[in-house]
Amino acid sequence: MINIIGLGYIGLPTALILAANGVSVTGTDYDRELVDTLNSGMTTFEEDGLDKLFIKANENGVLFTTEYISTDIYIVAVPTPYDKASKKIDANYVISAVNRILEVCFDGAIIVIESTISPGTIDKHVRPLIQAFGLETGKDIHLVHAPERIIPGNMIHELKFNSRTIGADTKSIGERVKQIYSSFCDAEIIITDIRTAEMTKVVENTFRDINIAFANELTKICRTDKMDVYEIIRIANMHPRVNILQPGPGVGGHCISVDPWFLVGDYPDLTNLILAARKINDSMPKHVLGRIRDIMREHNIKDISKVGLYGLTYKEDVEDTRESPTLQLLENMAEHLAYGIKVFDPMVKSRVVDHQFMNFEDFLNEIEVLVIMVSHTHIKENMDLIEGKLILDTKNICSFNKSYKL
Ligand code: SAJ
Fold this sequence. Notes:
The chain has 406 residues and is an alpha/beta fold. The protein folds into two domains: 2-192, Rossmann fold, CATH 3.40.50.720; 227-405, NAD(P)-binding Rossmann-like Domain (Rossmann fold, 3-Layer(aba) Sandwich). The chain has helices at residues 11-20, 32-39, 50-59, 92-104, 121-132, 155-161, 171-181, 194-224, 229-236, 259-266, 272-298, 325-332, 360-366, 377-380, 383-386; strands at 2-5, 25-28, 63-65, 73-76, 109-113, 141-145, 164-168, 189-192, 307-310, 342-344, 356-357, 369-372, 390-393, 404-405. Bound molecules: ligand 1. Ligand 1 is lined by residues 116, 148-152, 204-205, 208, 212, 245-246, 248, 251-253, 255-256, 314-315.
């Protein structure tokens, strides 16, 4: 029996894919409402293929509870935020999960940490917990780090086809964990040490952040002299060794905008490039605000409540609003909020901000300037509805002559 701790965006799909592939699984989460929802036969977020997996996992007897189970394998997938002041990882969720496991686990149990952690977290924060229990790592308890790599929007496919890294203290424990992941993962599974696995995961997300920052910096350069950044990136990317990502209104989500800070927090004197990239990406919502002002000036629009932001999530076709560029932008313009900039997102069913509309047409009726912050399929399929508006298209999805770009 594997006990998965944390049934969020990573823990739930992992529990389901294991169970769907015949592994005996109990999922544990401290959120009673979430556990009740799963036990009532419903999933807790939308993701392509998740519901199908849920049905299969239920047929195979997957269990959900708020309790920790006595067993010999645990997979921990709890949040790892960073402390905004120190820029260092906040490992409290991991620490509390491991403490609860140590109270109930069998002798010789394996604890796999899937949550993204900064390099050294296991040595600094997790091993001491085991010693404090009077136990010995490598004998009474085995620690493993197996960071996830799946991308929201394509999670189920990537669970099966992305290669994985397993960091373990010994090859034999690494092999045992590899066997578990092999039950559903068809790609290569590499065994390495824990520190390398920790660092590799953070490096992957930092690489993406830096690449996006480069695209965003190019956007600002191109704006100054009216060059077309999208065309320039498109042509540059035809070079066999160039692969620049796309500019946008900012970098959100709980991964790319968080993980590079772990390195900045731990190596402040050595992370000039990484810090610069973070600052560039964090400056993009302000750049969008500047572009909104340009358009308002040009069209003599004085009232910010005539502006509507389309998209509240951190990227297209997901429901997750964490650290989203739109929320960052609204924070940036807090003093103007009283004037009521409008917001709409078809993926967000609850009220998250002021002046949020739940109906697209009502939203459009109230605004003159539409700012596309997120390129949901919904708007791509409803281009005819927005044609009469002044459009600031931060995602380059709109081909109308009149649309403004970043
Ligand atoms: N974005 C751009 N331009 C781009 C690509 C993305 O501005 O060309 C923005 C998005 O709009 C979004 C943010 O970046 O606001 C992050 O989105 P994303 O799609 O790049 O990444 P995430 O956060 O959804 O998932 C990432 C992935 N990491 C890498 O691709 C290296 C995923 O594989 C990881 O599993 C995930 O982080 C994680 O959990 O760490």
